[in-house]
Specification:
alpha+beta; heme; 10 strands; about 10% strand; single chain; binds protoporphyrin IX containing FE; Cyt_P450; five-stranded mixed beta sheet; globular
């Protein structure tokens, strides 16, 4: 395997994060990975990290315990300005930042809250939430903003009810989440968002410690206390992760998926004719947009031979899930949105031990939303030209700021 000096000058260096020039495609530079499957690239800290773009390489990396998820490990490739080394974490790390064996223990403790069976039980309530939001939208002015009418409230209400967080506080946590995910925010702004959310959730968890509640956070307190492993700050860390991951991701997929369906009427027709196909459509839309592509970054803890190179201990790695989901060897004609292709092996939810904990919930919400939206409003259309839609190019989670629609 070739060993490349990470400090060597390289005029052709790609600087990450790269922009999507078309909201429906990965950055055009990803095509160059077809010749060169692993590349050293520049990241905002001024350091270099390895970028892997092939589906098989990204999966192999994510399934290899020699790569760490610890964001506070020096060398972890941050795609926003994190203030450099030596900043102390403002919140106790949770699942997504943990390595085995601590990760496995933490995940086993909560995984029972996200089983397929549990999600099935949530189905009627999610349907009710979607219908209520659509009732209000239909009764309101046209055009409407689908983001505020549907995309944000549906997953926010669902995760609030699941965790036991009051939905009345949605403006507070939605604003702070989006500041936390904004790559253009300063370190101080990100930290302020983290601290305010942490303090808010800490108060909420303290109240549940005093008065037990039958919700995810309340049940965790009871269970972990019985096991003798309960830790307040750990639960606050988990609540923070679940609250952000639970609404921002799915909200953006609802908005982007709706645009893709409106722009691809032949594909929309497939699910209108047969709602049984909507789950396939959801998988393909997840592949197509890969909204959380840098969630699959890692740092090597040992020297590892992979993708034809040797990644040295301490070097950062970007598992480019968006590139992997457009790998033509895995997904033929990847630029074509094709609900019939069978896209379930995409890596939009990651792969390996950290694979998305909320994936069954996300799938369920997306299926119900798309089925209900186009059944109830078959004449739905964009209220502005596609070119004027404000895509979230600056966020860690790709999506839309607003989505004007009419019918
Ligand atoms: C992990 C994407 C929805 C909770 C992940 C990862 C990705 C991802 C790529 C892997 C991160 C890694 O490898 O380190 C998405 C997308 C979603 C979505 C695209 C929606 C369309 C949700 C929802 C929840 C959630 C609804 C919670 C209710 C989590 C958690 C983890 C995670 C807790 C960390 C799991 C672990 O490290 O063990 N997600 N997610 N996600 N996601 Fe999601």
């Amino acid at each position: 395997a070739a060993l490349i000096d990470p400090e060597a000058a390289d005029p052709g260096l790609k600087h990450f994060p790269l922009a999507r020039t078309c909201p429906f495609s990965p950055p055009p530079e990803y095509r160059e990975f077809e010749q060169d499957r692993a590349q050293l690239v520049g990241i905002p800290s001024g350091e270099r990290a390895w970028a892997l773009a092939r589906h098989e390489d990204v999966r192999a990396m994510l399934n290899d315990s020699r790569f760490s998820s610890d964001r506070f490990n020096p060398g972890f490739p941050m795609l926003f300005n994190d203030g450099g080394r030596g900043r102390t974490p403002k919140i106790k790390p949770s699942l997504i930042n943990l390595d085995p064996p601590v990760h496995g223990q933490a995940r086993r403790s909560v995984v029972g809250e996200f089983t397929v069976k549990r999600m099935k039980a949530l189905q009627p309530r999610i349907q009710e939430i979607v219908d209520t939001q659509l009732d209000a939208m239909l009764a309101g002015d046209r055009p409407a903003d689908l983001v505020t009418a549907l995309s944000l409230p549906v997953p926010s209400l669902v995760i609030c009810e699941q965790l036991g967080v009051p939905y009345a506080d949605h403006e507070f946590f939605q604003t702070h989440s989006s500041n936390f995910l904004d790559r253009q925010a300063t370190v101080d702004q990100r930290e302020a968002a983290t601290v305010e959310m942490r303090d808010y959730l800490s108060g909420l968890v303290a109240a549940k410690e005093a008065t037990p509640t039958d919700d995810l956070l309340g049940r965790q307190i009871e269970k972990l206390r019985a096991e003798g492993t309960y830790d307040h700050d750990e639960l606050v860390g988990l609540a923070f992760l679940l609250l952000i991951a639970g609404h921002e991701t799915t909200a953006n997929m609802i908005s982007l998926g709706t645009v893709a369906l409106l722009e691809n009427p032949d594909q929309l027709e497939l699910i209108k004719q047969d709602p049984g196909k909507t789950l396939d459509a959801v998988e393909e839309l997840l592949r197509y947009f890969t909204i959380a592509e840098f969630a699959t970054s890692r740092v090597a803890t040992e020297d590892v031979d992979i993708a034809g190179v040797t990644i040295r201990a301490g070097q950062g790695v970007l598992g480019l899930s968006h590139a992997a989901n457009f790998d033509p060897e895995t997904f033929a004609e990847p630029d074509r949105l094709d609900f019939t292709r069978g896209a379930r092996h995409h890596v939009a939810f990651g792969y390996g031990v950290h694979q998305c904990l909320g994936q069954n919930l996300a799938r369920l919400e997306l299926r119900i939303v798309f089925d209900t939206l186009f059944r109830r409003i078959p004449t739905l259309r964009l209220a502005v030209p596609f070119e004027q839609l404000p895509f979230k190019h600056e966020s860690s989670i790709f999506g839309l700021h607003c989505l004007p629609v009419a019918w």
